[in-house]
Amino acid sequence: MSTRTMAGFAVAAAVVVGTAGCSAGAVTQKAGEKAGESAQAILGALSHASDEASRASSADIIATVTSPDTGGKPVTMKGLYSWGDGVAMETVMPAKDLQMEEMVEDGTVTMRLAKGAYYYEVDRIEEGPYKGKTWIRVEMSAVLGEKGASAAQGDPTAALKSLKYAKTASLIGAESVNGRNTKHYRASVPAAKMGAAASDMYKHLGVSGEIVTDVWLDDNGMPARLNQAIGAMSMKMDFLSFGTAKTVEVPPASDVADMTDFYKEQKQGKAA
Question: CB-based contacts of 209: which residues, under 8 Å, 6+ apart?
Fold first, then answer.
């Protein structure tokens, strides 16, 4: 496998980091100052969104990530995001965005996040130690660090703790998102104030400074869109619907090539 596929692993990690356990986690980073609405009203709206999203447990999403690992180009994925029993995802991504064109004929890669690991579906490997395998596996902890992986798998409402650390928070205005009427909020929270586990996750990815988050809440108080700037990385996630009844399955072990050690070696070489 080409070392260029490391970019794909980093992109998948970016989505998990950006949402910190789905909309609720990132949404609740927006607390505090008044701008058209009182601080109490803003906090109430965002707390409600956090509670309702947590109860929904899953959503159909479209996410776009841009980072140095993508060469500054946007990478888009569409699929299911679940947080009811640990964070899980199943999305379809253009192979060229992951620099994995040589591994699939149809031009797309299905990525799953389940049970603490990323899985990438590829065409059957025809030679070498992974002959016959059709999935590539990389442990989440290899990408985010042990504490970071734990934070990303945690309760999505835990980020409520970061509210008191918001340096700024405001109502930007009313906007339409995918045909839904929404209110647009913005807040900035120092990465170092996101809690020990989350802070370790950001540090592991080379992120410091402030986490700027924009969220759009619809008339039902649910997140319709989430934008987040994390250092040199940016992420946009649209929530198309909530409560999708589908389970993200771990691929059969007999079909999986575990490349966690390969990823670690290449990451260390890149840092050297």
Answer: 190, 191, 231
